Amino acid sequence: MAYEALARRWRPKIFTEVIGQKESVKALVNALDSDRLHHAYLFSGPRGVGKTTIARIFAKSLNCAEGITSLPCGKCPACLEIDRGSMIDLIEVDAASRTKVEETRQLLDNVQYSPTRSRFKIYLIDEVHMFSKHSFNALLKTLEEPPPHVKFLLATTDPEKLPVTVLSRCLKFGLKKVGPEIIVSQLEKILTDEKIPYDMESLSYLARASDGSVRDALSLLDQAIVHGKGQLVSEEIGKMLGLAQHETIFTMLNLVSAGEGEQLLELSRKLAAQGSNYELIMNQMLQVLRRVAVLQIVGQAVDDYEEHKLEINELAKVISPENCQLFYEIILQGLKNLEISADYETGFEMTLVRLLAFKPETLSSENPLKAIMNDGTVQVNDAPVKESVGHTEREEPQGLQETDLSKRWVALIKRLSLTGLPGELARNSTLIKKEGHTFYLEVSSEFSGLIQPNYVEAIAKAVSDNLKKEIKVEVTESDDSTKITLANMENEEIADKKELIEKGMDSNPNIERFKSVFDAKLESLKLKSEL
After folding, report:
1. 195: three-class secondary structure by DSSP
2. Is residue 362 part of a domain?
């Protein structure tokens, strides 16, 4: 007996076998069970997600010998003929090959005649968006008021190309891409039934390479079985698809974080020698960085996907949240530029070089907001003081340095939606220590009037909401007005900008000539942000 492709052998025969299209299937089943049947249905969605399959199951449900049902028997002549593709009353049309209006009219000439031996005459038109304008016009009247024995089932991957006059005459079902977890589960079921050895990483590779298409996943599975001589091994599947091993992806990102350019480019050359698919590798890197970013910011995994969870957790500790966001943007831009690069290898290497070149200065590789919430007590102003020539400096304490803690507080304040006087109190405060869930703040005596219970309570609530923990805040007055606060940092930034602008004006010959002619001088300079 000739071999039958997995995509055909495992094609769903009933609605309960359809995967990833729960809402659309539910609506069709309810319509069949309640006998509320429209005369025209439009199934749209990406390739390989079940448009034609669902249409054929629906046709079986309409013409099953046991009556109109959401669960066709699969044994009667009508069900068997539809499965074999030989039913005379199911007219399947490939619109891509029948675009002429004459062919459409010829097709519709037989609409008026009753079915040969079935309950309904069903027209299943695939890729209907390929019809010409005149073909659509020829179809409109029949589509709007067909005879009671006729049903139209239309399928398309591009519903935007359909005229609104056609869309308005159909019940529309938008099918979506199937998630990788669902595809993995289906592949696992098939391989178990086929008694083929496999590992989960191989299935993950195939699911992600299929890009949400079940048909593509099954076609790749067929290829992988042949490639692996009757078994699935992740290393071989990676080579077949041009993917890098997940260990390689994690190694690359760790090398980028450590600034090991020589080793990184050496690894890139090894991937080139293996004939790797750079587009897929960059997508792998983006998927890993996405999981890392969500873990860092939200504090939990992006989904229930357990694969490489330990490596993701380790990478989240090595790469700072700021670097993670930057790396994602650089790789995303590099992926867009691959097509216009001299060649893919050059485009990939330049993306890696950019990852090494553009790294923001960060306070710590740890999430700065979560660092504030580390267990224990942090005291920053009780460290012993030592004298040195020309100045006095504070020894570094065992916990966080004052600069680090203050800057982390500033980073937190920037994220809070505090306005009005509570916002001013927060902007002019600095975090001096933290005991348990209590933050101790100081403000200079200049702003002591802002220390009001309701303002302090507003800050505590905003911080608690942001950190998702119950936080208490206590504020005291200080004579030191030079501590690191958001307001002081903004003032320093404005002063630096002013100094730079004034230097530029002093060296500008036109301004110098203006001063000379009018005996003018610059009295004050105000930036727009100060107004």
Report:
1. coil
2. no
